């Protein structure tokens, strides 16, 4: 009886999420953006999420000229799929509405080359690539083991080492990308203006001011203060209530 109850509960949640999403789409098409936001948020309240849901929610906030939540939801979509072209395109338009113009200081040297390589795919994709290489390695091993022709055995033997090298590279890339994903803590400024101070206390000097929609990276938390870094490398302490972390 309990199993039937849980199955019915799961079906009802999925149905509710689908109807909420479709309702939000219909409201958006009719220009009722505030109501569409409520419909999409009701889906998120059921712990359902998707790239499309965050993307559509970001579009609603963009139409309502609420830059910070628009960028925040586009960023949430990109967390799920960093290659989504629609989210990448729309977030650029939303960022043009922000007040702060923070330069992006590119990384150089080996760190940049490594990040550029591992960043080609998400860590999930690297995992599937690793599985593919492992299967291919097994096929070459079986070919080496069962074939009797010397030339063919040599081809399979050399192929095994090449694939083994690629396998190790894909595993390393996956671990590096997973580590980067876990350690990076992007956040969006939601306050209209927020003082960034030299130390985690109100009495410290204000080094600069940030405005709604600006993206920062959280490095450390101390009480209700967070140490942040901008894309140009500038650091400081900000009231945690002024920002919203994307991965929360």
From TrEMBL:
<keyword id="KW-0677">Repeat</keyword>
<feature type="repeat" description="TPR">
    <location>
        <begin position="17"/>
        <end position="50"/>
    </location>
</feature>
<dbReference type="Pfam" id="PF08239">
    <property type="entry name" value="SH3_3"/>
</dbReference>
<dbReference type="InterPro" id="IPR051685">
    <property type="entry name" value="Ycf3/AcsC/BcsC/TPR_MFPF"/>
</dbReference>
<dbReference type="InterPro" id="IPR011990">
    <property type="entry name" value="TPR-like_helical_dom_sf"/>
</dbReference>
<protein>
    <submittedName>
        <fullName>Tetratricopeptide (TPR) repeat protein</fullName>
    </submittedName>
</protein>
<keyword id="KW-0802">TPR repeat</keyword>
<feature type="transmembrane region" description="Helical">
    <location>
        <begin position="126"/>
        <end position="147"/>
    </location>
</feature>
<dbReference type="InterPro" id="IPR019734">
    <property type="entry name" value="TPR_rpt"/>
</dbReference>
<dbReference type="Pfam" id="PF13414">
    <property type="entry name" value="TPR_11"/>
</dbReference>
<dbReference type="InterPro" id="IPR005415">
    <property type="entry name" value="T3SS_Ca_resp_chp_LcrH/SycD"/>
</dbReference>
<feature type="transmembrane region" description="Helical">
    <location>
        <begin position="154"/>
        <end position="176"/>
    </location>
</feature>
<keyword id="KW-0472">Membrane</keyword>
<dbReference type="InterPro" id="IPR003646">
    <property type="entry name" value="SH3-like_bac-type"/>
</dbReference>
<keyword id="KW-0812">Transmembrane</keyword>
<feature type="domain" description="SH3b">
    <location>
        <begin position="184"/>
        <end position="247"/>
    </location>
</feature>
<keyword id="KW-1133">Transmembrane helix</keyword>
<feature type="repeat" description="TPR">
    <location>
        <begin position="51"/>
        <end position="84"/>
    </location>
</feature>
């Amino acid at each position: 009886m309990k199993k039937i109850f849980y199955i019915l509960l799961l079906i009802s949640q999925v149905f509710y999420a689908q109807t909420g999403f479709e309702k939000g789409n219909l409201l958006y098409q009719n220009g009722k953006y505030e109501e569409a936001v409520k419909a999409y948020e009701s889906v998120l309240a059921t712990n359902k999420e998707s790239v499309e849901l965050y993307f559509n929610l970001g579009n609603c906030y963009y139409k309502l000229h609420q830059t910070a939540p628009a960028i925040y939801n586009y960023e949430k979509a990109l967390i799920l799929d960093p290659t989504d072209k629609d989210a990448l395109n729309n977030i650029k338009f939303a960022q043009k509405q922000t007040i702060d113009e923070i330069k992006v200081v590119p990384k150089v040297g080996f760190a940049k080359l490594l990040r550029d390589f591992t960043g080609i795919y998400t860590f999930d994709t690297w995992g599937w690539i690793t599985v593919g290489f492992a299967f291919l390695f097994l096929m070459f091993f079986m070919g080496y083991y069962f074939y009797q022709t010397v030339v063919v055995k040599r081809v399979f033997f050399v192929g095994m080492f090449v694939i083994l090298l690629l396998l190790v590279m894909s595993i390393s890339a996956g671990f590096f990308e997973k580590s980067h994903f876990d350690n990076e803590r992007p956040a969006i400024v939601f306050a209209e203006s927020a003082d960034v101070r030299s130390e985690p206390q109100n009495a410290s000097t204000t080094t600069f001011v940030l405005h709604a929609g600006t993206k920062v990276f959280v490095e450390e938390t101390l009480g209700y203060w967070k140490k942040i870094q901008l894309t140009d490398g500038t650091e400081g302490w900000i009231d945690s209530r002024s920002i919203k972390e994307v991965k929360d």
